[in-house]
Amino acid sequence: MASPDQIMRALSEVVRARRQSLGLSQEQLSAKADLHRTYISDIEAGKRNLSIKSLHRLAVALNSSMSELVKSAEQQSLVAIAAAAATAAAAGAMPSHE
Hints:
This protein is mainly α. It has one domain (about 5-85): 434 Repressor (Amino-terminal Domain) (Orthogonal Bundle), CATH 1.10.260. Helices cover about 75% and strands about 0% of the residues. It is built from five helices and no strands. Helix 1 packs across helix 5, helix 2 packs across helix 3 and helix 2 packs across helix 4. The longest helix has 28 residues, at about 65-95.
């Protein structure tokens, strides 16, 4: 299971990717979501822990739903965890050159 920090990082990536796929600047998204541009920047940098209210505003501005954004973040974080585990397992299976 992903940690809250991993979900937050993944959510920041989901928000950025969705914004970019819609061709919106951070300033345009901030206007649509009625959130400050620096707040959007902080969200995308993983520096903000979103409130339900802010998440709802972002979802509407991104033509999405809160559940879709969170589900995408959960899936992305699980993929990252699996990749890290595979990398660690491969590193542990490599022969030592001592």
